[in-house]
Design goal:
Elements: E1 3-8, H1 15-26, E2 32-37, H2 42-53, E3 57-63, E4 66-72
Parallel strand pairs: 1-2
Antiparallel strand pairs: 2-4, 3-4
Length: 74
């Protein structure tokens, strides 16, 4: 298992989800992908994307306008 960190700060929709999608395509099952985003709509987007793709959302936090999502490759 490995962990990858993505910086999508400053990107607007659909940029962060596209970045996440590309990383998840090459990730191995069980890998953790952490993404940092400043787009305010990302929280709803990532929750829906995880449900649709079957990749568990391990955590979703926001601190000072930065949303941090940790997703497990399913």
């Amino acid at each position: 298992m490995s962990e990858v960190k993505l910086n999508a700060r400053g990107l607007q929709c659909p940029g962060p989800i596209v970045m996440l999608f590309k990383q998840m395509k090459i990730a191995a099952p069980g890998d953790l992908v952490t993404i940092e985003v400043t787009d305010s709509g990302f929280k709803a987007d990532v929750e829906a994307w995880c449900k649709k793709t079957g990749n568990p959302l391990q955590s979703l936090t926001e601190v000072e306008g930065v949303t941090v999502a940790v997703i497990v490759k399913g």
